Each structure stands twice: as C-alpha cells, then as structure tokens.
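Appendix B, record 7
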Amino acid sequence: MAALWVVGIDEAGRGSLVGELMIAAFAIEDSKEPLLKKMGVRDSKELSRGQREELYGELIKMGVFAVLPIPPKEIDSENINRLEERRAGDLLKIIFNRLKGPRAVKAIYIDKFGELRSCPGGYGTLATGATWWLSLRLTPSTPSCRPLA
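Structure tokens (predicted):
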C-alpha cells in the first residue's frame, strides 16, 4: 500500500507593518510523524533561529513543502483571515499535486488564524476510500482539519 501523508499548515510574520506574511504547508509520511517530536520540532516561537535553521535542513529531506507570501498591499486591502484561507487552499492544491492527489493524505492540521471557520479545500476522497468534505473544526487545544464521512 502507498504511504499516507500528514499535512500541516501555519503562517509566520507580522503582517503589513513589518513585511510579508508567509504561509507554509509541510507534508510528511504518517509513519515518520513520531520522528518530528524526537527531532525537537515544535512551534517556531519556542525555537532559536539556529534551531529553526538546523531543523529546516533536516525537514526538507523528510517531506514535501510549499510556501506562499501574502504581500503587505494585499493585507492592507483585504481581510487577512480570508487571505490566509485562500493561501491555505492554494498550498493544499500544491501539496496534493506533489503527492499525486488527496487520496494520499491521512490528516490535515491547520493552525488557527483569526476567526477561520472553514477549511480551505472541498470534496474529495482519502486514501482509505472515505469521502470527505474538508471542514475545519477548531477548539483552543485541537486546531485541525478532519475528514468527515
């Protein structure tokens, strides 16, 4: 059976006052996910610059990633939460393409930004054959997208 993947999406930056806001997606094979904790992967705010750079060098060898900017001009002209939702959807399309479709994805985790209430995406099928509508269900302790049958 082909590998199943887990995808995470998060943003970094301070918005239009300081420059671009960056939003990234990273996909790793489900079987390799436990390695992330052993490597010390956690919220980037808890890591030094050196730790982030070292982890980056290792992570790009382990998974698939994509990064998209949100320029200050867009942030100033539109709701930042809607911009982040759209970019997250764009990132999922890129990741799905690199993984040869959403069927390879077991789970998608999106760090909550703003008042995001729906998950970018749509209708599809997971590797398990389950039909899903990507819908974001967020609580303070479990921000994640979950497949709904």
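Remarks on this record: The mean pLDDT is 76. The first strand starts at residue 5 and ends at 12.
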